[in-house]
Amino acid sequence: MTPRPPAPRRGLPDTADRQRLARLFGYLRPYRGRLLVGIVAVGIASLLGLAAPLVVRDLLNGALAGGAGSARAALDRTALLLAGLMLLQAGFNFLRVYQLGRVGEAVVADLRKELFSHLLTQPVRFFEERRTGEITSRLTSDVATVQAAVSQALAQLVNQGITLVGGLVVLFALDARLTLVMLLVVPAVAFAAAFFGRGLRRVSTRYQDLVAEANAYAEEAISGVRVVKSFTAEPLERRRYADAIDASFGQALRRVRLRALFVPAVVLFGFAGVGVVLWYGGRLVVGGALQLGDLMAFLLITLFVAGSVGTFTGLWAQLQEAIGASRRIFELLDLRPELAEPAAPVRLERVRGRVTFEDVTFAYAEGRPVLHGVSLDVAPGATVALVGPSGAGKSTLVSLVSRFYDPQAGRVLLDGVDLRELALRDLRGLVGVVPQETQLFSGSVLDNVRYGRPDASEAEVVAAARAANADGFVRQLPEGYATQVGERGVKLSGGQRQRIAIARALLKDPRILVLDEATSSLDSESEALVQAALEALRRGRTTFVIAHRLATVLGADEIVVLDEGRVVQRGTHQQLLAAGGLYADLFRRQFAVQAKEAATRR
């Protein structure tokens, strides 16, 4: 797994941060046309804003110098001219906001889709090592933080850049002496921006991490709400979530304090400059070296320039937050899947279904193997049962068949071809899995059954449901196959969910079938019917059956007994009973428990 990047250094963005920003703004490329229109609209609106003080200047310097009648006419003309400028500026501002806003929303949508798509390429191990809430936080809050940078910030950058540069040009044209006096305060503003900006970046990144942690707690509690309620653990979950939120709130307050200090400091320096300009300019007007209209225009444009500098400092703070969020987003986007796709995948023309494990060793964590040198050859169409104590490695072994993981040593072969030489999509299309923990998705029963074959007809769905003994209860649901099952299938019982999962696997019609405790939630009657359906399904298919109830695997072609990641016994039920050992012990123990339960019921 790719390690987390080092903590950011203080001060200006480093090379890595600049590269991330360049990469972030690279998402604007498909929308160059709209972006250009928006930027042109920004430029025109900014220039129109600078024109207004010059109109006022001409009014004060010339038009009001005449008589009362000519002054009133000049005022009327100036008012009409200013109104026209304002209307024109409003039109271009609308165009700017709409075009750049649309670009920003499109970029965020693209980024979310790319991030989610990339997440789906990650191996199962990635999701086992990270909490769901932390991942979804990057899809939501982090991307929302970035949105401001790619839309609003870009518009403001152009807008305030034109205002700042254009304003300075006009100010120098009006009076170079006053402009130089005004510029004395700019270094102080720049220093304040750099000082507060580096703190904001650090605090914002930490804040996003804490929000992600709080989201992870919430997701765990909501997804496991039945367990929470059954253990009356609501106070515990409230406390865990509240503690996480309080931690993020504390960090948010630090960010608020920095912003609260940031903006007044910049405004203070800005208005200090305006005060100095007013004092010095007033002296020039009194001495006859400057006209009143020039001073008023200078003051108005100085306010614009000061506002631009203040906005730039706000943009700097926004930039720091975007750097922190983009670092978290690109950390995920830069993860390369551990399960590499072959450069030239092998195509199996006709899949027979022989699965071979050659001296396979596998560990979830380095130095702690779960499987130790397992070798097993499963003939096409054979049914192999994997039994043994909990933690023996049964589910881990079959997970290698779908290549959810790669072994650290040894190989897994399909028809003599190493699974690493097959395209993952092709391989997994050949394997149907009914897991121990049934996972249904929000949607209808029909949607869930045809999940692996979206193009399947309704008749095919019904046939699969019948084979899985699900058709009967489905037709009794309020809307039949159109009934919504709820998130994770919460509106169905455990046995109903499991039969839907079996129907889903049946409809896929795989060459290799993996049944991981597939009938564990069924009552005796339903289990017998589903077992009969599965018997028919197994014909001609290679089937792996994991079961703790040994009575369900008596008819397997071969039973493989695992203990502590090693194959300790192999054979048919009768052979293993005759041989004694772990299998015979497990069977006798289960038989004794079942006999005791039967006696208790009598």
Task: Describe it.
With 602 residues, this protein is α/β, with parallel strands linked by helices. It has 3 domains: 23-333, ABC transporter type 1, transmembrane domain (ABC transporter transmembrane region fold, Up-down Bundle), CATH 1.20.1560; 377-430 and 511-602, Rossmann fold; 438-509, P-loop containing nucleotide triphosphate hydrolases (Rossmann fold), CATH 3.40.50. It is built from 20 helices and 10 strands. The strands form 2 sheets. The chain has a 6-stranded mixed beta sheet. Strands 2-1-4-5 form a 4-stranded antiparallel beta sheet, with no helix packed on it. It is elongated. Residues 1-12 have low confidence and may be disordered.
Q: Give me the CATH superfamily of the largest domain.
A: ABC transporter type 1, transmembrane domain
Rg from alpha-carbon coordinates = 35 Å
The gross shape turns out to be: elongated
> Roughly what is the average pLDDT, rounded to an integer?
79
Question: Biggest sheet, strands in spatial order?
Answer: 6-7-8-3-9-10
How large is the share of residues in beta strands?
5-15%
Are there runs of 5+ residues with pLDDT below 50, and where?
1-12
The share of residues in helices is 55-70%
The assigned structural class equals alpha/beta
Total domain count:
3
The CATH class designation of the largest domain is Mainly Alpha
Total helical segments? 20
Biggest sheet, in brief? 6 strands, mixed
Order of helices and strands: HHHHHHHHHHHEEEHEEHEHHHHEHEEEHH
Number of strands: 10
Under CATH, the topology of the largest domain is which? Answer: ABC transporter transmembrane region fold
Distance between the termini: 56 Å
CATH architecture descriptor of the largest domain: Up-down Bundle
